[in-house]
Write a structure and sequence with these properties.
Elements: H1 2-26, H2 29-69, H3 72-104, H4 130-136, H5 142-147, H6 151-168, H7 173-194, H8 197-212, H9 215-219, H10 221-246, H11 249-256, H12 258-267, H13 274-284, H14 288-301, H15 304-320, H16 327-340, H17 350-361, H18 369-373, H19 376-401, H20 421-424
Helix pairs in contact: 1-8, 1-12, 2-6, 2-7, 2-8, 2-14, 3-10, 3-14, 3-15, 3-16, 3-19, 10-11, 10-15, 10-19, 12-19, 13-14, 14-19, 15-17, 15-19
Length: 426
Protein backbone atom coordinates (compact mmCIF):
# COMPACT_ATOMS: atom_id res chain seq x y z
CA UNK A 1 0.00 0.00 0.00
CA UNK A 2 2.69 2.50 1.02
CA UNK A 3 4.87 1.75 -2.02
CA UNK A 4 1.90 2.24 -4.35
CA UNK A 5 0.85 5.38 -2.48
CA UNK A 6 4.35 6.83 -2.82
CA UNK A 7 4.23 6.12 -6.56
CA UNK A 8 0.80 7.73 -6.88
CA UNK A 9 1.99 10.82 -4.96
CA UNK A 10 4.96 11.17 -7.31
CA UNK A 11 2.67 10.79 -10.32
CA UNK A 12 0.37 13.45 -8.88
CA UNK A 13 3.35 15.75 -8.32
CA UNK A 14 4.65 15.41 -11.89
CA UNK A 15 1.19 15.67 -13.46
CA UNK A 16 0.46 18.74 -11.35
CA UNK A 17 3.55 20.52 -12.64
CA UNK A 18 2.73 19.54 -16.24
CA UNK A 19 -0.95 20.50 -16.10
CA UNK A 20 -0.20 23.70 -14.19
CA UNK A 21 2.32 24.81 -16.80
CA UNK A 22 -0.23 24.21 -19.57
CA UNK A 23 -2.92 26.16 -17.69
CA UNK A 24 -0.57 29.08 -17.06
CA UNK A 25 0.34 29.27 -20.76
CA UNK A 26 -3.12 28.69 -22.25
CA UNK A 27 -5.53 30.41 -19.83
CA UNK A 28 -5.97 34.02 -18.81
CA UNK A 29 -5.65 35.19 -15.21
CA UNK A 30 -9.40 35.18 -14.59
CA UNK A 31 -9.78 31.58 -15.75
CA UNK A 32 -6.71 30.50 -13.75
CA UNK A 33 -8.08 32.20 -10.64
CA UNK A 34 -11.42 30.44 -11.08
CA UNK A 35 -9.82 27.04 -11.60
CA UNK A 36 -7.47 27.76 -8.70
CA UNK A 37 -10.42 28.01 -6.33
CA UNK A 38 -11.51 24.46 -7.15
CA UNK A 39 -7.97 23.12 -6.99
CA UNK A 40 -7.40 24.92 -3.70
CA UNK A 41 -10.60 23.38 -2.36
CA UNK A 42 -9.25 19.85 -2.93
CA UNK A 43 -6.00 20.62 -1.11
CA UNK A 44 -7.81 22.48 1.66
CA UNK A 45 -10.16 19.56 2.30
CA UNK A 46 -7.22 17.16 2.54
CA UNK A 47 -5.30 19.38 4.96
CA UNK A 48 -8.45 19.82 7.04
CA UNK A 49 -8.82 16.06 7.24
CA UNK A 50 -5.20 15.84 8.38
CA UNK A 51 -5.82 18.46 11.06
CA UNK A 52 -8.89 16.45 12.11
CA UNK A 53 -6.61 13.49 12.81
CA UNK A 54 -3.68 15.23 14.51
CA UNK A 55 -5.11 16.23 17.90
CA UNK A 56 -6.76 12.90 18.87
CA UNK A 57 -3.85 10.91 17.43
CA UNK A 58 -1.22 12.90 19.36
CA UNK A 59 -3.26 12.71 22.56
CA UNK A 60 -3.97 8.98 22.30
CA UNK A 61 -0.48 7.84 21.28
CA UNK A 62 1.31 10.08 23.77
CA UNK A 63 -0.88 9.15 26.75
CA UNK A 64 -0.67 5.44 25.90
CA UNK A 65 3.09 5.72 25.46
CA UNK A 66 3.50 7.38 28.87
CA UNK A 67 1.40 4.73 30.58
CA UNK A 68 3.43 1.94 28.99
CA UNK A 69 6.74 3.69 29.73
CA UNK A 70 6.40 2.38 33.24
CA UNK A 71 7.52 5.21 35.53
CA UNK A 72 7.98 8.97 35.63
CA UNK A 73 11.75 8.62 35.97
CA UNK A 74 11.93 7.07 32.50
CA UNK A 75 9.68 9.84 31.18
CA UNK A 76 11.93 12.53 32.64
CA UNK A 77 15.05 10.87 31.23
CA UNK A 78 13.55 10.63 27.74
CA UNK A 79 12.34 14.24 27.98
CA UNK A 80 15.78 15.59 28.88
CA UNK A 81 17.48 13.66 26.08
CA UNK A 82 14.84 14.85 23.61
CA UNK A 83 15.19 18.52 24.53
CA UNK A 84 18.99 18.30 24.44
CA UNK A 85 18.82 16.95 20.89
CA UNK A 86 16.24 19.55 19.83
CA UNK A 87 18.29 22.49 21.13
CA UNK A 88 21.45 21.14 19.50
CA UNK A 89 19.70 20.54 16.16
CA UNK A 90 18.09 24.00 16.23
CA UNK A 91 21.44 25.70 16.79
CA UNK A 92 23.02 23.69 13.98
CA UNK A 93 20.17 24.50 11.57
CA UNK A 94 20.13 28.22 12.34
CA UNK A 95 23.93 28.43 12.19
CA UNK A 96 24.04 26.55 8.90
CA UNK A 97 21.64 29.04 7.33
CA UNK A 98 23.74 31.94 8.59
CA UNK A 99 27.02 30.44 7.34
CA UNK A 100 25.69 29.59 3.88
CA UNK A 101 24.21 33.06 3.27
CA UNK A 102 27.53 34.64 4.22
CA UNK A 103 29.44 32.26 1.94
CA UNK A 104 27.13 32.22 -1.09
CA UNK A 105 25.73 35.80 -0.92
CA UNK A 106 22.44 35.00 -2.71
CA UNK A 107 21.17 38.57 -2.19
CA UNK A 108 24.24 40.37 -3.55
CA UNK A 109 23.85 41.48 -7.16
CA UNK A 110 20.60 39.55 -7.54
CA UNK A 111 19.27 42.09 -10.03
CA UNK A 112 15.75 42.03 -8.57
CA UNK A 113 13.46 45.06 -8.56
CA UNK A 114 13.15 45.88 -4.88
CA UNK A 115 9.93 47.22 -3.39
CA UNK A 116 10.24 50.50 -1.46
CA UNK A 117 11.70 49.97 1.99
CA UNK A 118 8.62 51.67 3.46
CA UNK A 119 6.16 49.24 1.85
CA UNK A 120 3.95 47.37 4.29
CA UNK A 121 3.40 43.62 4.30
CA UNK A 122 0.24 42.33 5.91
CA UNK A 123 1.82 39.64 8.10
CA UNK A 124 1.10 39.37 11.80
CA UNK A 125 4.01 40.04 14.13
CA UNK A 126 4.89 37.44 16.75
CA UNK A 127 5.32 38.54 20.31
CA UNK A 128 8.88 38.66 21.61
CA UNK A 129 7.70 38.76 25.24
CA UNK A 130 9.29 35.70 26.83
CA UNK A 131 6.64 35.63 29.57
CA UNK A 132 3.83 35.56 27.02
CA UNK A 133 5.55 32.86 24.96
CA UNK A 134 6.00 30.62 27.99
CA UNK A 135 2.43 31.21 29.20
CA UNK A 136 0.98 30.29 25.78
CA UNK A 137 2.65 26.90 25.96
CA UNK A 138 0.21 25.87 28.69
CA UNK A 139 -3.45 25.26 27.80
CA UNK A 140 -6.20 27.11 29.60
CA UNK A 141 -8.58 24.66 27.93
CA UNK A 142 -7.60 21.38 26.31
CA UNK A 143 -10.58 21.74 23.99
CA UNK A 144 -9.26 25.09 22.78
CA UNK A 145 -5.82 23.57 22.26
CA UNK A 146 -7.27 20.69 20.27
CA UNK A 147 -9.55 22.97 18.24
CA UNK A 148 -6.54 25.10 17.24
CA UNK A 149 -4.21 22.09 16.83
CA UNK A 150 -1.73 23.74 19.21
CA UNK A 151 0.48 20.70 19.57
CA UNK A 152 2.56 21.92 22.48
CA UNK A 153 -0.56 22.54 24.57
CA UNK A 154 -1.90 19.09 23.64
CA UNK A 155 1.43 17.54 24.61
CA UNK A 156 1.48 19.25 28.01
CA UNK A 157 -2.08 18.15 28.81
CA UNK A 158 -1.28 14.62 27.61
CA UNK A 159 1.78 14.52 29.90
CA UNK A 160 -0.34 15.42 32.93
CA UNK A 161 -3.05 12.96 31.89
CA UNK A 162 -0.66 10.08 31.23
CA UNK A 163 1.31 10.58 34.45
CA UNK A 164 -1.96 10.78 36.43
CA UNK A 165 -3.17 7.51 34.86
CA UNK A 166 0.12 5.87 35.85
CA UNK A 167 -0.27 7.14 39.42
CA UNK A 168 -3.86 5.88 39.70
CA UNK A 169 -2.79 2.40 38.65
CA UNK A 170 -5.34 -0.39 38.29
CA UNK A 171 -8.32 1.96 38.63
CA UNK A 172 -7.34 3.56 35.32
CA UNK A 173 -7.27 0.23 33.47
CA UNK A 174 -10.57 0.88 31.62
CA UNK A 175 -9.22 4.24 30.43
CA UNK A 176 -5.97 2.61 29.29
CA UNK A 177 -7.91 0.07 27.24
CA UNK A 178 -10.09 2.82 25.77
CA UNK A 179 -7.12 5.00 24.77
CA UNK A 180 -5.30 2.00 23.28
CA UNK A 181 -8.39 1.33 21.20
CA UNK A 182 -8.50 5.00 20.18
CA UNK A 183 -4.93 4.70 18.85
CA UNK A 184 -5.93 1.86 16.53
CA UNK A 185 -9.09 3.65 15.39
CA UNK A 186 -7.17 6.86 14.57
CA UNK A 187 -4.53 4.90 12.64
CA UNK A 188 -7.31 3.32 10.59
CA UNK A 189 -8.82 6.75 9.96
CA UNK A 190 -5.34 7.87 8.84
CA UNK A 191 -5.25 5.06 6.28
CA UNK A 192 -8.57 6.24 4.86
CA UNK A 193 -7.45 9.89 4.64
CA UNK A 194 -4.10 9.02 3.04
CA UNK A 195 -5.84 7.39 0.10
CA UNK A 196 -6.84 10.81 -1.24
CA UNK A 197 -3.38 12.33 -0.78
CA UNK A 198 -2.31 11.90 -4.46
CA UNK A 199 -5.30 14.01 -5.54
CA UNK A 200 -4.38 16.68 -2.99
CA UNK A 201 -0.77 16.70 -4.22
CA UNK A 202 -1.91 17.02 -7.84
CA UNK A 203 -4.26 19.88 -6.98
CA UNK A 204 -1.67 21.73 -4.89
CA UNK A 205 1.04 21.58 -7.55
CA UNK A 206 -1.33 22.40 -10.40
CA UNK A 207 -2.55 25.51 -8.63
CA UNK A 208 0.85 26.89 -7.65
CA UNK A 209 2.31 26.39 -11.15
CA UNK A 210 -0.84 27.66 -12.91
CA UNK A 211 -0.86 30.86 -10.85
CA UNK A 212 2.87 31.60 -10.77
CA UNK A 213 4.19 29.77 -13.80
CA UNK A 214 7.60 28.18 -14.10
CA UNK A 215 9.06 31.61 -14.91
CA UNK A 216 8.91 32.67 -11.26
CA UNK A 217 11.37 29.89 -10.44
CA UNK A 218 13.80 31.20 -13.07
CA UNK A 219 13.61 34.73 -11.67
CA UNK A 220 14.72 33.56 -8.23
CA UNK A 221 16.77 30.61 -9.43
CA UNK A 222 19.94 31.60 -7.52
CA UNK A 223 18.13 32.14 -4.24
CA UNK A 224 16.06 28.94 -4.60
CA UNK A 225 19.15 27.00 -5.71
CA UNK A 226 21.29 28.16 -2.78
CA UNK A 227 18.47 27.46 -0.33
CA UNK A 228 17.96 23.92 -1.61
CA UNK A 229 21.71 23.43 -1.54
CA UNK A 230 21.52 24.42 2.12
CA UNK A 231 18.75 21.87 2.68
CA UNK A 232 20.93 19.24 0.98
CA UNK A 233 23.79 20.06 3.35
CA UNK A 234 21.38 19.86 6.30
CA UNK A 235 20.11 16.49 5.08
CA UNK A 236 23.71 15.27 4.89
CA UNK A 237 24.32 16.49 8.45
CA UNK A 238 21.18 14.73 9.71
CA UNK A 239 22.07 11.54 7.83
CA UNK A 240 25.60 11.65 9.28
CA UNK A 241 24.19 12.12 12.79
CA UNK A 242 21.90 9.13 12.25
CA UNK A 243 24.86 7.11 10.93
CA UNK A 244 26.86 7.87 14.08
CA UNK A 245 24.10 6.35 16.20
CA UNK A 246 22.63 3.53 14.09
CA UNK A 247 25.31 2.87 11.45
CA UNK A 248 24.16 1.67 8.05
CA UNK A 249 20.55 1.61 9.24
CA UNK A 250 20.55 5.36 8.55
CA UNK A 251 20.01 4.54 4.88
CA UNK A 252 17.16 2.23 5.81
CA UNK A 253 15.55 5.05 7.79
CA UNK A 254 15.49 7.33 4.76
CA UNK A 255 13.84 4.55 2.75
CA UNK A 256 11.18 4.02 5.42
CA UNK A 257 10.27 7.70 5.68
CA UNK A 258 10.29 8.44 1.95
CA UNK A 259 6.48 8.54 1.76
CA UNK A 260 5.90 11.05 4.61
CA UNK A 261 8.79 13.19 3.31
CA UNK A 262 7.32 13.23 -0.19
CA UNK A 263 3.87 13.99 1.21
CA UNK A 264 5.18 16.89 3.28
CA UNK A 265 7.13 18.20 0.28
CA UNK A 266 4.19 17.96 -2.11
CA UNK A 267 1.64 19.60 0.19
CA UNK A 268 4.11 22.03 1.84
CA UNK A 269 2.83 20.80 5.19
CA UNK A 270 4.89 18.95 7.82
CA UNK A 271 1.67 18.30 9.70
CA UNK A 272 0.26 16.27 6.80
CA UNK A 273 3.09 13.77 7.22
CA UNK A 274 2.73 13.26 10.99
CA UNK A 275 0.60 10.08 11.00
CA UNK A 276 2.69 8.34 8.35
CA UNK A 277 5.94 9.38 10.05
CA UNK A 278 4.70 7.77 13.26
CA UNK A 279 3.95 4.54 11.43
CA UNK A 280 7.26 4.61 9.55
CA UNK A 281 9.22 5.00 12.78
CA UNK A 282 7.26 2.15 14.31
CA UNK A 283 8.22 -0.15 11.42
CA UNK A 284 11.83 1.06 11.66
CA UNK A 285 12.02 -0.07 15.28
CA UNK A 286 11.40 3.06 17.35
CA UNK A 287 9.13 2.10 20.30
CA UNK A 288 5.73 3.85 20.14
CA UNK A 289 6.21 5.27 23.64
CA UNK A 290 9.28 7.18 22.38
CA UNK A 291 8.06 8.11 18.89
CA UNK A 292 4.73 9.39 20.19
CA UNK A 293 6.59 11.54 22.73
CA UNK A 294 9.35 12.92 20.48
CA UNK A 295 7.33 13.71 17.35
CA UNK A 296 4.72 16.04 18.90
CA UNK A 297 7.43 17.97 20.72
CA UNK A 298 9.41 18.11 17.50
CA UNK A 299 6.61 19.96 15.75
CA UNK A 300 7.14 22.84 18.18
CA UNK A 301 10.84 22.61 18.98
CA UNK A 302 12.61 20.80 16.15
CA UNK A 303 11.59 22.13 12.73
CA UNK A 304 15.10 21.94 11.28
CA UNK A 305 14.19 23.01 7.75
CA UNK A 306 12.21 26.00 8.99
CA UNK A 307 14.99 27.01 11.36
CA UNK A 308 17.58 27.10 8.58
CA UNK A 309 15.18 29.02 6.34
CA UNK A 310 14.66 31.75 8.95
CA UNK A 311 18.29 32.86 9.10
CA UNK A 312 18.74 32.23 5.38
CA UNK A 313 15.77 34.36 4.29
CA UNK A 314 16.35 37.14 6.82
CA UNK A 315 19.98 37.65 5.82
CA UNK A 316 19.08 37.29 2.12
CA UNK A 317 16.71 40.27 2.41
CA UNK A 318 19.36 42.23 4.31
CA UNK A 319 21.79 41.60 1.46
CA UNK A 320 19.22 42.72 -1.12
CA UNK A 321 18.96 46.11 0.60
CA UNK A 322 22.71 46.39 1.14
CA UNK A 323 22.46 46.12 4.93
CA UNK A 324 25.63 44.74 6.49
CA UNK A 325 25.08 43.07 9.85
CA UNK A 326 28.07 42.46 12.10
CA UNK A 327 28.89 38.99 13.39
CA UNK A 328 27.56 39.98 16.79
CA UNK A 329 24.28 41.19 15.29
CA UNK A 330 23.90 37.96 13.36
CA UNK A 331 24.45 35.91 16.50
CA UNK A 332 21.86 38.05 18.30
CA UNK A 333 19.47 37.45 15.39
CA UNK A 334 20.10 33.71 15.60
CA UNK A 335 19.24 33.66 19.30
CA UNK A 336 16.17 35.84 18.71
CA UNK A 337 14.89 33.46 16.03
CA UNK A 338 15.54 30.49 18.29
CA UNK A 339 13.40 32.06 21.01
CA UNK A 340 10.49 33.52 19.03
CA UNK A 341 10.02 30.47 16.82
CA UNK A 342 9.06 28.28 19.77
CA UNK A 343 5.77 30.10 20.29
CA UNK A 344 4.57 29.76 16.70
CA UNK A 345 3.27 26.19 16.49
CA UNK A 346 0.14 25.71 14.34
CA UNK A 347 0.43 29.19 12.75
CA UNK A 348 0.13 29.01 8.93
CA UNK A 349 3.40 29.96 7.25
CA UNK A 350 4.86 30.47 10.73
CA UNK A 351 8.35 30.99 9.32
CA UNK A 352 7.29 34.19 7.55
CA UNK A 353 5.58 35.46 10.68
CA UNK A 354 8.70 34.91 12.78
CA UNK A 355 10.96 36.43 10.10
CA UNK A 356 8.75 39.53 9.90
CA UNK A 357 9.04 40.20 13.62
CA UNK A 358 12.80 39.61 13.67
CA UNK A 359 13.50 41.90 10.70
CA UNK A 360 11.89 44.84 12.48
CA UNK A 361 14.24 44.42 15.44
CA UNK A 362 17.34 44.63 13.23
CA UNK A 363 16.29 47.44 10.91
CA UNK A 364 15.73 45.24 7.86
CA UNK A 365 12.87 46.49 5.62
CA UNK A 366 9.78 44.32 5.99
CA UNK A 367 9.02 45.05 2.32
CA UNK A 368 11.60 42.44 1.32
CA UNK A 369 9.10 39.77 2.29
CA UNK A 370 7.05 40.76 -0.77
CA UNK A 371 9.72 39.13 -2.93
CA UNK A 372 9.81 35.93 -0.88
CA UNK A 373 6.03 35.62 -0.84
CA UNK A 374 6.08 35.05 -4.60
CA UNK A 375 8.12 31.86 -4.23
CA UNK A 376 7.38 30.85 -0.65
CA UNK A 377 5.33 27.84 -1.75
CA UNK A 378 8.39 26.34 -3.45
CA UNK A 379 10.56 27.09 -0.42
CA UNK A 380 7.96 25.78 2.01
CA UNK A 381 7.93 22.45 0.21
CA UNK A 382 11.63 21.93 0.85
CA UNK A 383 11.61 23.00 4.47
CA UNK A 384 8.49 20.89 5.23
CA UNK A 385 10.13 17.75 3.90
CA UNK A 386 13.29 18.54 5.85
CA UNK A 387 11.28 19.02 9.06
CA UNK A 388 10.03 15.43 8.72
CA UNK A 389 13.57 14.10 8.27
CA UNK A 390 14.81 16.07 11.30
CA UNK A 391 12.07 14.78 13.59
CA UNK A 392 12.46 11.20 12.38
CA UNK A 393 16.21 11.29 13.09
CA UNK A 394 15.53 12.81 16.52
CA UNK A 395 13.17 9.96 17.45
CA UNK A 396 15.68 7.33 16.27
CA UNK A 397 18.54 8.94 18.19
CA UNK A 398 16.54 9.15 21.43
CA UNK A 399 15.44 5.51 21.06
CA UNK A 400 19.07 4.49 20.55
CA UNK A 401 20.16 6.52 23.58
CA UNK A 402 17.55 4.66 25.62
CA UNK A 403 18.80 1.31 24.29
CA UNK A 404 15.32 0.50 23.00
CA UNK A 405 15.73 0.64 19.23
CA UNK A 406 14.26 -2.62 17.92
CA UNK A 407 14.92 -4.47 14.69
CA UNK A 408 12.98 -3.04 11.74
CA UNK A 409 9.97 -4.75 10.24
CA UNK A 410 10.55 -5.83 6.61
CA UNK A 411 9.97 -2.84 4.30
CA UNK A 412 7.89 -4.96 1.92
CA UNK A 413 5.27 -5.46 4.66
CA UNK A 414 3.23 -2.29 4.75
CA UNK A 415 0.46 -1.03 7.04
CA UNK A 416 -2.32 -1.71 7.71
CA UNK A 417 -1.29 -5.40 7.36
CA UNK A 418 2.10 -5.10 9.09
CA UNK A 419 2.46 -6.64 12.57
CA UNK A 420 2.87 -3.14 13.92
CA UNK A 421 4.43 -2.56 17.33
CA UNK A 422 2.21 0.52 17.49
CA UNK A 423 -0.72 -1.86 17.73
CA UNK A 424 0.98 -4.68 19.60
CA UNK A 425 2.60 -2.72 22.42
CA UNK A 426 -0.32 -0.42 22.93
Amino acid sequence: MAKRLTLFIMIGLVLGIFVGAIMHAAMDQVAVASAGKWLGLVTDIFLRLIKMIIAPLVFATLVSGIVHMGDTAALGRVGLKTMFWFISATLVSLSLGMVLVNLLHPGVGAGLTLPPATAHVDIAKPTSDIFHIIAEMFPKSIFEGMANNTLLQIVIFSLFFGVAMTAVGAKAAPLVAGIDALVEVMLQVTNYVMRVSPFAVFAAMTKVIAVNGLVVIGTFIWFIGTFYFGLFVLWCALAFAAFLFVGTRAGTLIRYIREPVLLAFSTASSEAAYPRTLEALDRFGVPPKIASFVLPLGYSFNLDGSMMYMTFATLFIAQLYGINLSFGQQIAMLLTLMLTSKGMAAVPRASLVVISGTMAQFGIPEAGLVLILAIDQFLDMGRSGTNVVGNAVAAVVVAKWEGELDKPLPPEIEPPHAPSRLHGVL
